[in-house]
Amino acid sequence: MYAVMFEKAPYPFDHPLNALVLEVFRLNGALIASGDALVRPLGLTSARWQVMGSVAQGRGGFSVAQLARNMGLTRQSVQRIVDELVDDGIFELADNPHHKRAKLVRLTEKGEALFAEATARWLPHAEDLASVLAPGELARLTELLAQLRARLEQGPISGGGR
Fold first, then answer.
1. Model-level pTM?
2. Packing angle between helix 17-39 and helix 109-130, nearest 10 degrees?
3. Span 34-86, pLDDT tens digits
4. Domain 43-149, CATH among 1.10.260.100, 1.20.120.1760, 1.10.10.10, 3.40.50.2000
């Protein structure tokens, strides 16, 4: 009886998308490890550097909740890092004209200098990584990954749950 059930049930790794998912997981792990090594001499981690990048990208106009949404992380995990970086003098909190309680997160002068140093360290690595792709492939790969992410963000997939 069980042998018949196993023959009919698809092996969980047979779907063609699984190879991509596993490679994305491996890439994420490699990026975190590489980022940690890159910014460790600056007293940073990949997680802190990622939040700093999101703050820099928003030019000080994002609350913790907005940062978390932009990065696809939980508000609580971003709040923890923001609190640490405020304590370290890297971030400051500013009044938000649109919301009394949700402060805006900004880089301090110290934070701007630190982020500039991290960026200077990153750029040669970014160029090296991008060099393995043919012209146009990086933009297309980014588009394809964004399409998959957008589909996941639409919510539960019909028939996928029990």
1. 0.82
2. 130
3. 999 999 999 999 999 999 999 999 887 899 999 999 998 999 999 999 999 99
4. 1.10.10.10
